[in-house]
Amino acid sequence: MALMGIVLGALLSFFTQGTRISSQSSSRADLQQEVLNVQQLIVGKLREAWYIYPAGQTLTLSSAVTTRNPVTSNQSWNTSTHPILAMILPPSNTALACATNANGCYRFVAYYPVVRSVWISGVTATPWLDPGSNANNAATWVLAEYRANMPASFVPTVFPPAAVPAVPQNGTANLLADFVAPTIVTPGFTTIASAYSMFSFLPTNSSATVPVSGVTLRVATTRQTVGTTLRLPNATDEYTISVYPTNLGKIAATPIN
Q1: Percentage of residues in the chain with pLDDT exceeding 70?
Q2: What pLDDT sits at residue 13?
Q3: Is 232 within 8 Å of 31 (Cβ atoms)?
């Protein structure tokens, strides 16, 4: 009987370990796919962008829970010190007038993270935006996209514009990616060694009159699963890609989905 107990214990341990490894492998693949999807989407928008908000600008998004800055806990964002990337895309149809057809409007788009638990609390009326409750990962972040049409009065004739364009307040937020690693120290997920900057701009002295010429996107992903915290690509690095937009100041555009 003792021998049988040992054998059964060994088998249980084997299958438990196998289940854990399988679960971690599945989570790893899911996290990697999230990052790939985000990179492809943002790179596509940057290549289409007419204008990119430069470093050092304070942007205020609409007063919704889904736009809450995880660093300041309000809707105010600084493009140098907070993880936000904002841009203006050309009209999807330049033959149309914005005043009569939304397809003729310039389009504001921003990418930014929100604490996962905060995001979930803000989408109770829109369940299709809810990634699902997960107490073990409540402190991780999600990545969101904020979209809004610029007002009909926004008809730029020069580039770069003389002043940084105001952010439209009638935008909507959509969920892009789940289980994003916080850029700031967050117990259980991000240490001092693994803190990072999500977006950076070239030139570093970009301003209203010195347009952005390049953007670097860094993102790591993390999740607690089966008692283990996964972080990709590794414990301290990020997936990094740099983009040098070619449509800045140009009106021709590819329609946005």
Answers
A1: 88
A2: 53
A3: yes
Give phi and psi for 148, each to the nearest 5.
-160, 145
Q: Tokens 């942007």 label which residue? A: 59
Tell me which residue has tokens 């693994």: 194
Q: Residues 197, 215: contact at Cβ < 8 Å?
A: no
Query: Which among 138, 243, 242, 239 is positioned nearest to 196, based on CA atoms?
Result: 239
Following CA atoms 42, 48, 49, 55 in sequence, which dihedral angle do they give, to the nearest 10 degrees? 40
Task: Give the sign of the dihedral formed by CA 131, CA 137, CA 138, CA 142.
Answer: negative
Kindly state the average pLDDT of the residues 233-256.
85
The mean predicted confidence, pLDDT, of the chain is 90
Q: Where are the domains of the chain?
A: 25-243
Residue of 28 and 66 predicted with greater confidence: 66
Q: Any idea what DSSP says for residue 186?
A: B
Residue 16: other Cβ atoms inside 10 A: 11
Q: Which residue has the tokens 């054998």?
A: 7
Count, residues in the chain: 257
User: Pairing between strand 85-89 and 107-115?
Assistant: antiparallel
Alpha-carbon span 134 to 137, nearest angstrom: 6
pLDDT band for position 227 (50/70/90)?
A: confident
